[in-house]
Amino acid sequence: MNAAVLDGVNLPLQLKSVEKPTISDNHAIVKLHAAALNHRDLWIQKGQYAGLKFPIILGSDGAGVVVESTDPNWIGKEVILNPSLDWGESEKAQQKSFRILGLPDNGTFAEFVKIPVGNLYEKPAHLSWSEAAALPLAGLTAYRALFSRAHLQANEKVLITGIGGGVALFGLQFALAAGAEVWVTSGSDEKLAKAISLGAKGGANYRNASWEQDLKSIGFDVILDSAGGDGFLKLIELAAPGGRIVFVGATSGAPSSFPMSRVFWKQLSIFGSTMGSPRDFSHMLDFVNSNKVIPIVSDVLSLSSAEHALRKMNEAGQFGKIVLQIN
Question: Which CATH architecture has domain 140-272?
Fold first, then answer.
């Protein structure tokens, strides 16, 4: 089969002919129609991820048709893949053996992928192959953060930072579908305008030195962040008394200080969140189906253009998911 293979740190993805995966107990083989990129793929290529191994087929997101399965009921079905492998029994947190599809297991930048049968879910009928492939990792992350961790309710005020990336955009779409009022931040006025066109009430450009002043009077019940850094200190100020801040990443590193007195005086709750459980994934799909949420796809490229797709992600110019079409 053809696959986009990474042979080492800072090397380009190369389209190669590799062996098709073989079936084993409680697994299935899926013929992929589309796969989507995540920043995780880029961090692995840069060597900024734990547990590196090479060669590796990257890709955590995919949608396709089951061609082999130890459970015959799945054969021939259109599916999307839950990339959250071996989560464990607890809803509180993942177990030690938890891993994400695409490292150390070969991922979805290929014509076929092997995956546990328990990670197969029926593809939402209202989504195209590209839209379905865009959903799993970022959709799961946003859903758990907002609902399982922060317990978002209708009519609450929500701030989502860094709009344009997959998790942030799903956060916007999910919060709006749940009946919340949403504001966003971005370093691009164009992305702010696009978010407002999707239903956000407003936003602020964090490249402006006093950006938080534009939002200070609102008081946010829930804040979803993936950047961290010293900008996190401003989020503490923007949170309403009793507010909840949930973060799913720290691309800007850790804050240089932490105002504990502000946190306890404002009665804030701060949550960390990573991926999600099978229950989260199932509930996320139910939410997407019932609200007819359609993932926002920025670009659709061929599997042979996987390296170009990673370079495009590295430039951070996209608004939505970058998808590989696999013929």
Answer: 3-Layer(aba) Sandwich (3.40)
